[in-house]
Amino acid sequence: MTAPRATSWSFREEDSARIRGVLQDFLREAQGRTALLVDRAGQMLVTVGEPPTFDPTAFASLTAADFSANDQLARLLGEPEFGALFHQGEKESLYLADIARRVILVVLFDNRTTLGLVKLRMKAAVTDLTAIFTAMFDRDPAQDASQVDSAFLGEAEDELDKLFGS
Amino acid sequence: MSLINYASREINCKIVYYGPGLGGKTTNLEYVYEKVAPSSKGKLISLATETERTLFFDFLPVDLGTIRGFRTRFHLYTVPGQVYYNASRKLILKGVDGVVFVADSQIDRMEANLEAMQNLYDNMAQHGYDLPKMPFVVQYNKRDLPNAAPLADLDAALNPGFPVEDEARQKPTPDPYRPGEYLVKEVDGVWIERVPTFEAIAVRGEGVFDTLKAVSKQVLKTLG
């Protein structure tokens, strides 16, 4: 398998603005309720549309686990991956798609739209987001390192001592 | 692969508790959940079997608060310890920033400890991670049990040390957590480095926060 780069990566404000633009267009066209981006390690990156009524941190970790488990199922079948997953509920449904093997796009939708329309609009969004994220991952993380400095580390260690006992 | 999100001004780090089945990984997380202030913790999620054995993972987010404008969180995960759950164990290591190996101190669990440690190295390598270069600590749990192995035996089996290639680091480095011991030292002409170890009785909470604090501090250092 291709090993991911085991380094930090950063998500800048200009990245967020471009990504939000793509997601807002997608949600409007697909008539979905909420679009979320979650990284494969289980961290929430962006939410657009109706604010989630659930715990977003828990949602992100379960989404990443769900996608990873299905990746392995695909391999057992001899498929390189399942590029997308669909979870159907009575009122609410989820459609999930892979972005550049590092991020998962999730759309939450109800019976105001159809799975067909969501899938159709998702394709263009996935292409646009893949281009944006690939450029982000190729960026040198050292460019952003200056904001996490020794002052940050000192304060973070103090907080750790307070939270976990010194 | 910690994520620094400049847009939402968040830093999230992932710490995984690894080790043999019934070694106390979930107990560590449950104790943290019980003791950390409600404002600093999220929901504890356990994907477990009917008999409360971890099936996929346990997950607990711990919030360090806002530090110099960044909301900083640690995401704590456990893996299922049972040998046959390796596929799910490997998945949880994706994007890991720090590892805690929870060893079961009982003499008759030594083989299970060794097998789990080897499995950890194998799975990390398959993800492209070099474990000795990452934040990594070992917890010797269940120190209160009468059949607990001596620390020296556990060290020899589970934390024998790896060679230090970098000449600048080839100097005696005291172990901040075990007075009189060294993390880096010369043995038979070879410089070796061990990882920090902690004695624990996780059911009573002893050693739980010391372990978590040590690995968290190591992880923070990798962010800069």
Characterization of the model:
The complex is a heterodimer of chains A (166) and B (224). Chain A has a single domain, classed as Dynein light chain 2a, cytoplasmic (Beta-Lactamase), CATH 3.30.450. Chain A is 47% helix and 20% strand. Chain A has 166 residues and is α+β, with helices and mostly antiparallel strands. In chain A, α1 (13-30) packs antiparallel against α3 (115-138). With 224 residues, chain B is α/β, with parallel strands linked by helices. Helix content of chain B is 26%, strand content 31%. Chain B has 5 helices and 12 strands. Chain B has helices at residues 25-35, 86-92, 110-126, 151-158, 208-223, and strands at residues 3-5, 10-18, 45-48, 54-67, 70-78, 98-104, 136-141, 162-163, 173-174, 182-187, 190-193, 197-199. In chain B, strands 1, 2, 3, 4, 5, 6, 7 and 12 form an 8-stranded mixed beta sheet that branches. A 4-stranded antiparallel beta sheet of chain B has the order 8-11-10-9, with no helix packed on it. The two termini of chain B are 13 Å apart. The mean pLDDT of chain B is 93. Chains A and B meet through β1, α1, α2 and α4 of A and β1, β2, β4, β5 and α2 of B. β1 (9-11) of chain A pairs parallel with β1 of chain B, so a sheet runs across the interface.
Residues in β-strands, percent of chain A: 15-25%
Q: What's the total count of β strands of chain B?
A: 12
By CATH, the superfamily of chain A comes out as Dynein light chain 2a, cytoplasmic
Biggest sheet details of chain B = 8 strands, mixed
C-alpha Rg of chain A, in Å? 18 Å
Q: Element order, helices and strands of chain A? A: EHEEHEEEHH
The share of residues in extended strands of chain B comes to: 25-35%
Query: Biggest chain pair contact, residues each?
Result: A-B, 51 and 55 residues
Q: Count of helical segments of chain A? A: 4
The percent range for helix content of chain B is 25-40%
